[in-house]
Structures
1.
Amino acid sequence: MRFYILPLAALAIPLVANPYTQFMVNLMLVYVLVAVGFNLVLGNLGQLAFANTALFGIGAYSAAMLMAHAGWPFWLVIVPAGLAGAAAGFLASVTALRGIRVYYLAIVTLAFGELLRWSYIHGERATGGTDGLAVPNSHFFGIALDSETARFYVFLLIVTVLVKAVSNLLQSKIGRAIVAIRDNELATASLAIPTGRYIVLAFTLSGFVVGIAGSLFAVLIGRVIPESFGLIELILHFAMVLVGGLGSLLGSVLGAVALTALPEFFRRFPGLYEMFFGGLLIVFLLVQPRGLSALAARWWQPLRDRYYREH
Amino acid sequence: MNYFLGMLACAFAVSAAAEDGVTAGSIKIGVMGPFTGNASSYSKAQIGLDAYYKWVNDQGGVNGRKIETVLEDYACDSAKGVAAVKKLIHQDKVFMLHGNSCSAVAMAIKPIVVEAGIPWVVAHAANGNISSPPVKNIFHGVPVGKTMGIAMGQFVASKPGLTKVAVISHTDDWAKSYCGPANEYLASKNIKPVVQEAFERGQTDSTAQTLKIKQANPDFVIACLYEAETAIFLKDAKKYGLNVPVMGTAGTDLENTLKRVGDLNTVANYYVPHMYADNLDGPRLKKFGDILKKYYPNESVTAFSLIAMGSAMAVVEALKRTGREPTRDKLITELDRTKDFDTGVLAGHISWSPSDRDGVKDVAVAGFVKGKPTVLKAWGKPL
Amino acid sequence: MFALQLALSGLAQGAIYALVALSMCVVYRATTVVNFGHGDLVMAGAFVVYVLVVLAGLPFLASAVLAVALLFLLGVLIEIGLIERIKAGPHIGFALMCIGFGYVLRGIARGVWGREVLPMPTVFDFPPVIAGDLVVTADALIIFAAVGVLLALFFVLFYRSSAGRVMQAVCQSERGAALVGINVRAFHGVMWGAGAALGAVGGVLIAPLTLLHPGLGASFLIKGFAAMTLGGFGSLGGAVAGGLLLGLAEQWVGGYVSTKLIDVTAYLVIILVLALRPNGLFGRAVAERV
């Protein structure tokens, strides 16, 4: 029940936000979902897989294409976007299953993402090419998604439901198996736990969640362009999970909020964003590598997350 | 009670009448540009813009008000672009928007700008779809891709005996905004490219592309390439003996391309659409180069630097005409009264009307004649 | 002759990829860290040369040597100051750290040069050599010469000298090496320095060919990965072979299939290698200790 405190408190945000700050909050919601999904594979499963932008992009493009070309309303495209992401995640897991060594997996999934991006660029009419696809105004079961406030409530609902689902998953037998695989795959296998199946499951679920996040992103920005799903985006996702705390659900939330808000503070200094971002990452890694969630747990013991990466 | 309500009503009326972004002493203009990221060299346009507004302030401002520019970086990323424009409109509450170099992001923020009704003068992005079909509050202050593509195509077609054309270009929307219309124009003259080669940004060698083009034996090559890649292609063309004229885009200029390739022979056959009233280092543009240097002394002048100054001039003129109480509607009306405005920096004159917001329709072409950059009317015909 | 000319360009490009891949491999072998910021070290090398040649007025050769030396120092500093410090954290943290300092380097370049796209003044003004239909530029010759000499020196050093034996010892077993008195920490620093220096040479060689801008390094990072993957992760010779082959592949794909594919050749190579021969050309299947 403690879980719902944050979402319930968040309901008050539209009362104090202007469209810009509301947009930023909506963006944070999208990235919370992205980080939660990525953390499943990166933190809980412990695999360095860089497929996240591929999953994000495929979800966004699926949603955009269905809405723009087939005229489907938003509520109908959410699940297909998730399924597209899940399919991509499944493909990525096949790679992981081959026992590919750490960095190999990272590079292959990175390549996968870039190839997908190439296909968006050269997809011409289907994907809009480099100009991208405009996402038409849509509705969620009758609620028109034409204002930041409306989007906020819809996004909050979707994100809360999905994050709760992931939370339940992590506390279930499946979640424990996934973390066990991270800690020692061979030992886990020796306990007659089908590690292969759980690896595939983790990747696929991660893809599902991140794919849905992609559909939210498409509606939020109003346009999907290939540039949005490249390496720079991947680094952002990566940073969110790491800064938040590997394997920690709360960490994903904190990391997403922090790293979405951060660039906005650097607007004061156009041109220096890269240096600040890099510097921040370095300082963070030196000072608090276990992430913001570790910091939070230090202040308030009940926030401690069992599925951290303990190092 | 009535007195109180009256005061409330007055307060309401006053606050409703005061336009966003206008105070007693200043007018806030939101300037979006890609100051970081891969496209950061585009942001030279916004720098030039800012320098010009600062100069206007030093000359006394507009009707007693100084122009306060709010610069926002969006690194050519759509999420950052949407965040930036919403911040400018709803948080900084600027009076108008003037900027944008990246067409894809401009298209992404267009619905937001349309809904907010805030005047937006597009300072650099070339996609014609941003300003047409015309909407109430969007103005295009530079020649759009179609205009430039047609100018490129016309020049190419004016070469006597031209039958075959080859195209080498990036596959991004920037390149397409030039090569697309150019190809369309040539197609209307029944000239189709014999080969179309892709040369992506970041690549450092164009051997494959150059050789394939050479094999096709064209009379002209259209190169929709960015600065670095243009230099590489021209060098490779010389290296492999591809000695045909090359038509570039407004993303490069002759003087800087010469500097980049290092010798005249390599660029002797290079032509570019020319948006300016003179060569970049010519006497008529000196004043503008000086303005840039005054406020940004370390900034070098390239094809992008002065491009937005033209629209800035038109904006200032329109603002002056709105008088002491500028409102967004008044500004829009005055901008639409801009007819045949000679900015002194752009080759074409700016004209806007409610049914046509494509402000600049004239683009010339420039090439090297006897070693000097020269503006040309058509092949072999200097102005 | 078409194929041959393509091959020549491919090898010239490939030589640079080989250098970048080798430098990444050196770092990986020595400290098991894959440097995700390596592209930016290459860029830094190019920019330092630019500063020395254009702003300080030094002759090219002196600038090149100085740039390589400075980058060596930078590599050592990064290793001692940043990488060593986070050894206790999650392994994934290394990747982010490398990305972090890559961003800082890029930010510095952008802070100084902002929006400029800078030309390197032409260094070697010799006319190209023409053999029949084949054109060989001075730039290509210099790249071959420089890379060839460097690689030869490197492998001789690694396999023949006593310093090289130290390197091999540490690569095989850090604990064992420490037990026989080798200063493993110093070794790590030196190897990062060497990796950075080699990357800088790549930057120095590429600078006259292209215009300099802060984002220069991005494509080299990916090519380095692809080359390492193709050659077999962890194999030094493999990295070199992988680089050369990648350069060739790009040109041939561009020449015979479509120039649109040149940009993604590296990614296709990665996926193909994984599908067909996961250990790359020269990698050895590593038995995992349970």
2.
Amino acid sequence: MALETKLGPAESELGAPKRNILRPLVHNRLTLAGGVLALVFLLLALIGPYIAPYDPTLVDLPHRFLGPGVQGHVLGTDELGRDILSRILAGDRFALEVAVLVLGIALLVGFVIGALAGLGNRWLDDTLMRVTDMFLAFPPLVLAMAVAAALGPSLMHAMLAMAIVWWPIYARLVRGQLLILRHADYAEAAHAAGATRLRVLVRHIVPNMLDPIVVQLTMDIGNAILTAASLAFVGLGAQPPSPDWGLMVASGRLYALDQWWIVTFPGLAILLVVLAFNLVGDGLRDAFDPTLQRR
Amino acid sequence: MLSFIVRRLGQLILVLFGMLVLTFLVSHMVPGDPARLAAGLHATQSQVEQVRRQFGLNLPLWAQFTRYADGLLHGNLGVSILTRDPVSQDLGAYFPATLEITLTALLIVLAVGIPLGVVSAVRRDGLPDHFSRVFALLGVSMPPFWLAVLLQEVFAEKLGWLPVAGMLSSYLTPPTHITGIYILDSLLTGNWPDFTSAFASLILPSLTLAFGSLAIMTRMVRAKLLDVLRQDFIRTARAKGVLERRVIYRHALKNALPPAVTVIGLQVGSLLQGAVLVEAIFAWPGVGTYALQASEGLDFPAILGFTLLVSVVYVFINTIVDIIYAFLDPRVSYS
């Protein structure tokens, strides 16, 4: 115990070198653009309700189908006269909330199962991984559809379905990282220096396994938003009048020929937010991986 | 090698069994009493009990499961609540249409993705490479349903070049049933008007479906080709004066494509499930449309049948791809 305390400060120096992850991120212009865009979407999700020019759910039939820029409606109004800009702002918060919740549950379940598999004995590992494989073998959108359809269409059920689809990815990731890092030189060195198993795990292994998880989470935010919007679009996710971008595209479809803005802007919002998080995820992956050559 | 195939098939059986359990459990998450639902609104208590015994709903869960699994092994997927036909028969009728857009999309992915990947690897950092990068980024970020709506709006509504939806113009009679795939059947029977209509109807849905996979395919071919082009045997080939064209197509591409097989397998799976969304938008009478109608009508046997069908095809394709890959690349370890 005394030895460990004495080694305390040196231990942190022995750990993985501190990297400046911001440098390569700023270096790559595409990643930077994605990062700025992602930050804008995050910021708008926070302040959106305060800067939205109208109530996103306010039905105003006399002013329906107004084009972009007409009577102060920057992006126009939809078939019920609701302001599209305000609905897109509300949809931003809505989409991010759904993504964060789904991924939070998926990460939690995946982390626990992955950790049990990675740290447990051979039998437990095999059993848990076979179960994980089964879930991974399902086509995700189809499984989500089946769950959402069996339970009845609602946002709650769609989110549950998505979490069921998503946790195996994290279980796999966590287990893989644990298996690699458990035998990393610095982990064994810390153990040899007298650190307890728990301390090695918490201080040395877990901080080092976060990188790939952060990359995966960043990419998945976009994917989760896309999946939630897809489920809503086919009627198995969020229900009207939720400000869901997928729903907005679905309802705007009927008027797409003459009132192109109703369907165009929400779709564009999805495209941009997914693109932004994909770019950041790509950039983070490159930044975290020192062995990766720039191609 | 043989033991690898046997073990891979063993895994397949395990996964299929897991799917069976999972779909069974999903069907039992259904809120409410299925016996009362099936017996109808005005059924008496004794009638409900009779239905319960008839469907085995009074049995313990494991006994219900063996009944369900036994039925499946005999090709019995139950009866659809909406169509009142056996689910297996319904799926058989709807599946060719799904196969038609999935295979067409796959063809587009291969025919466009491979050349585009080669060009962007060969002219690395050139204009085609930048184009393919932007294209790939758009491909993975584009909501397919939105792309579909935009394509419909431009090419069908505004320009009027292609049909908005459907598999065949409504004033034509479908070709004689041979495979169920209109474009093949019309070609086989020499039905020219049907063929042109089926072809035109196929363009927008299959393009929408192919878009995301195309981006992934292009990037994959590019990355693998760049890896191979850096290797010694390529330098040797160039040094001994082999034409650059030949170096790329005969030496490099031959080695770069096997890893792409894995991607193709994954893409078939994702095309198949993407078809569900695309079918819904283009009123394409495939299993996806069938499943969506079923989910609106709370038709569980139909949803389960659809889920099992797509999942089984998906898992089979992945297994086949693994085995093909082991054949193509002798370095894959079978142990």
